[in-house]
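INFO batch 0412 | record 1 of 1 | parsing
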Amino acid sequence: MNNINRNYCKGQIIVLFAISLIVLVGIVGLAIDSGRAYGVKAKLSASVDAAAIAAARGLAVGANDSDRINNAKAAALKFYNGNFPDNYLGATRLAPIRPDPVHKSDGYWQVDVSGSATMPTTFMRVLNWNQITVAASGTAIRRDLDMILVLDVSGSLSSVFPTVKSAAINFIDKFVPSTDRIGLVAFSSGAQLLVPIDKTISRGFNKTTITNSINGLVNGGGTTSAEGMRVALNEINAVPALYRSSLRVIVFFSDGAPNGLPATFQYNTSKTPIPTVTGDLYSETDATGSAVGCGNSIPCGITSNTVTNGAWNTYLSSNTPANPISAFLPNNSGTTITITNLSPSSIPLVPNLVQVGQPGQRSLGASPYANTRCNVNKAARNMVELVANSARSWVDTNTNTNQPIAIYTLGLGSALNTLEITFCGYSNNEKGANIMKRLANTNDSDTLQSSAVPPGTSPQPNGLYCYADITADPYALDSCFTAIASDMLRLSR
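INFO prediction complete | emitting tokens
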């Protein structure tokens, strides 16, 4: 009797073990196959995101919306297939992804992309579960933009100017002619608006016109950066408020620190009233001076605001024509000067609104009519930073709404990483690269404007500063323009 019971128990254990083994295999299989499915899902999600980004960029190519949509779909499919190869972890792509670019009425392009794949199971087949289906979707937003491209055409760019023009043209090709707005400004000893921005509700830009204008540029002269920034700011703000894009950008290229100051100046103090003149006051960059009107202690003569080809157009002179004089700065470094056609037209030379405890604007000599080259050079640097600060914190007075302008800067040439001016006692934070970072309000700028400072103000947009070393890499400037375009068009509202 006891033997019979023992045999009976042995039979039960075998049955229970067999059942447990099936369950155990199922659990192990679930863990293994779920892990594989998770890997497929992650890869699929990354591929869908890449496809959405590619589609958004593909919208820049095409003569009309239909062409752009087709290009976007082709780019999405190419990136999706490239990032999610068939048979990845044994998975099979299902029907091709369905990118769906839609041009929204508020100016956005929205691209919705979805994809799916099946993965055969291994251990889970014992539970009659032969495959797992995974799916992923992504959305990309591309904003239409208003942009002014500001190009330095100073004489120091002679040897690399063809490279500059080629990279600028390639940059323009990245945008949509029918929906993006682009204007072009060139500056050296003055600044010119070469291609106005479209100011109508129809939007768009003429790629051929901008390309021809860039190809026709002639370099020469100084670096009146503030005048270039001022002209760009006035032009982008000339678009009526109701037609403006939500993304407003100034892209600023230069190879050196500012050395010219645009303003309305007094001159010839022996006369009453003291006459004034509007132009760009040049500070020279070496210790002895070489241009018209320069000397060891005074800045050079004034040039016309519209000079960009390096031809000096000095039109101020003293009673002795052979002894040209330059205009005078205000007689107190804390007062303002009038910078033509910028609202507000009077801008303080010092100080700049910066974060507490961080470096501010450069102090000028306080003696009356402190008309030295160092003062003019400091004022030129102050002014471009102040105009950029006005752009980044712009408030439309008609609608009382914040309409900030993001600034991106590109640098080229070794001068940006040196102290170009050696006779003003500048410290290392006066390198041209530091000024370019201030203009763009980069995260590593020493005057970073955050949401907290100044108190009660809106946060200013952060741009990028990209330095191109074309000696080490001939395509470095193209790479910088590409990096800036990618950041401008990154996929967020």
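INFO post-check: The first strand starts at residue 92 and ends at 93.
INFO record closed
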